[in-house]
Amino acid sequence: MSPDKVTPVPGPDPVDTETGWEQDEKDQVPRYVDAFGDESNAEVKYKTMEWWQTGMFMIAESVSLGVLSLPKTLAQLGLAPALILIIGLGLLATYTGYTIAQFHRRYPHIQNLADAGFILMGAFGRELFGIGQLLFSIFIMGSHILTFSVMMNTITEHGTCTMVFTTVGFVICMVGSLPRTMKNMTYISCASFGSIFTAVIITMVGVGVQGRTSSIKATIDTDLFHAFTAVTNIVFAYCAHVAFFGLLAEMREPRDFPKALYMLQTFEIIFYTVAAVVIYYYAGQTVTSPALGSAGPVLKKVAYGIAIPTIVGAGIVNGHIGLKYIYVRLFRGTNRMHGRDFVSVGSWVAIGLTCWIIAWIIADAIPVFSDLLSLISSLFASWFSYGLGGVYWLHLNWGRYFSSPRKIFLTVLNVCIVLIGGCMCGLGLYVSGKAIHDDASTNTFSCANNAETPEPRAPTPRPKTLDPRHHALLTPPPPAEIHRAATAVANALTPGNPQIRALPGATRATQDIDFVVLRGQTPPAAARRLLRASPHFTVEPRTNHTAFRDGTGTAVEIEIEILAPPALFRGPFDEDTEVISVGGVRVLKPALILNAKCRSILGRSREAKKHTDANDIIFLFGYSLCAESGAASEG
Q: Where is the Amino acid transporter transmembrane domain (predicted)?
């Protein structure tokens, strides 16, 4: 019997998981029991997992890449809000996981989200939920291929083209996906668990040995974009729910599922909290994502090496969910489900190969780890881990929402859970889309180094290869006009309390001032309006070209560029960022810009861009020396 012929049974009475019949005799209706049927004589048996094996599978699926982004979340949100969200969303995920178990107990034929979607919304729901589950699995697979390439770039110091590393990761994961049962995946799960646990411990030791490199903050004054990007990383850390129906279908005793759920959530919440706090305490605002990059130049390589089983294994485990959905959808109710003939095995291999190729394409198309995690969380985890849990409960208790005070409370709770899921999805799609758009300059399908914190080897061109006119640029530009322009900008933007920092001009435009507005302060568009209203500036309407006129009749124009922090570098930029004073002008430390330049040059595909970046780097070296000495003399 196909899932289309399932007859919903009214009432709250539980369903016997062995027979699939209502225990209340008057309501007995034949139903489709499960996806695997009678396995007494089957070659391949699926319903064999014990509860502890289920728990290990869930830990390997969930506690992998998610934990690596949490320390950065503390840096983005602040210690207090981030901890409240990590613990709070963890407890909420425990409750929604329990509602999934209740839903499966009522409808034991469910093997995947498509089956659940059919119960909720008919044929349309089956297709919608099925496609969502498949896409989620493929995107997770892609994130693990991407992380594999980051790991290899880190260990080998970008030893070869990044696409070579993603291809190697694709091949390894494809081979590891050949087993068809979840029980066989538990062995990979155990290795994955030990791997990520050890790697995080090594990272904590590494950041502790380095000592505290920057301060930590209880709260952060940030904007919606950066705050919710951090929230999506927490949501991703609790994304195991997509596998719960499949695990319940392959358990020997599905009634033991809550034991596995509590095993997962207890470990998750404690591990996430301790790892995030310890790494953030020592790494501070400079913590990286993935967090393994914060362990120092040597230990981070060790940590990444130890993490190889979880980078590969967790990808295989997550990928198995999507592959099994397709396989069950094709062969449910046939002998192919349990056979080892050429068609059965060949179909499984072909499904795996197709899905992993798509995942490889995604990994190369979105080569920024944090952006990909944010997109996955927004589209899928927001609903699979949270929103749908509330929908399942509301379906099970239809018509009894206000039957008792307890039901009223649970009704309000589950409605709120649905709304939370919708909010996570909507806002998450906005911030992830914006992040991918802002990172559009990052090369896709490229050989460039995609490690988040590469050890940059700054180019050192010989002086004789430089244009002679650049020698004069090893000292700061003539200050008079620059100082007048800086004062005018400060007065125009924030009279009496300038919340801006100046950046020095570079080799290509010495009569150029870049100003960085603080995060959460005057945005670039508003800054343009303020400058347009000042008599000291001209703003070209079509191009927004902004220039300062010194008012003395001179024809010299100084171009003004207003930057927001994400357009300059990814690190936080606020009132605590260290600045120096040069001739009375507050100047952002050139070392920060130098670091950004050294990172960006590695990803340049055009030689002309590399050359101009190299000239800027040499100029900034010279400016740093002069600026530091000037600041010392003023002090």
A: 48-431
For 357, the 3-state DSSP assignment is helix
Instruction: Indicate the SS3 state at residue 501.
Output: strand
Q: Which residues, at least 6 apart from 491, have a Cβ–Cβ distance to it below 8 Å?
A: 498, 534
- Least confident window among 182-186, 415-419, 614-618: 614-618
Q: What is the 3-state secondary structure (H, E, C) of 367-413?
A: CCHHHHHHHHHHHHHHHHHHHHHHHHHHHHCCCCCCCCHHHHHHHHH
CA–CA separation, 261 vs 263, rounded Å?
5
**Residue 177's closest CA among 307, 310, 40, 315?**
315
Kindly state the greatest CA–CA separation across the chain: 98
Best CA proximity match to 261, nearest among 112, 59, 83, 103: 59
Check whether 462 has a pLDDT greater than 90.
no
Cα 49 to Cα 437: distance, rounded to the nearest angstrom:
44
Asked whether the predicted pLDDT for residue 97 surpasses 90, the reply is yes
CA distances (Å), 65 to each of 199, 201, 267, 272, 379, in order? 12, 15, 15, 11, 17
Please, which residues bridge with residue 548 across strands? 537, 558
Q: What is the pLDDT of residue 570?
A: 42
State percent of the chain over pLDDT 90. Answer: 16
pLDDT tens-digit map of 251-286:
888 899 999 999 999 999 999 999 999 888 888 777
Question: CA-CA-CA-CA torsion for 48, 53, 55, 61, nearest 10 degrees?
Answer: -90
Residues 505 and 497: their CA atoms lie apart, in Å, by 23
**CA dihedral (8, 11, 17, 18) positive or negative:** negative
Q: In whole angstroms, what is the distance from residue 622 CA to residue 616 CA?
A: 10
Token pair for 558: 């100084």
Complete domains list, the chain, with CATH: 51-383+392-443 (1.20.1730.10), 479-629 (3.30.460)
Pairing of strands 557-563, 579-582: unpaired
Paired tokens of 208: 């502790």
Confidence of residue 91 (pLDDT cuts 50, 70, 90): very high
Answer yes or no: is pLDDT of 572 > 70.
no
Task: Please tell me the distance from the alpha carbon of residue 289 to that of residue 453, in angstroms, as a whole number.
Answer: 9
If you average pLDDT over every residue of the chain, what do you get?
A: 72
Residue 21 near residue 28 (C-beta atoms within 8 A): yes
Tell me the whole-structure pTM to 2 decimals. Answer: 0.63
Residue 476 has what DSSP assignment?
Answer: P
Structure confidence at residue 564 (pLDDT): 45
| Helix, strand, coil % over all residues of the chain, rounded to 5 | 65, 5, 30
Among 298-302, 501-505, 619-623, name the one with the lowest average pLDDT. 501-505
CA dihedral 310, 174, 232, 456 (to 10 degrees): 70
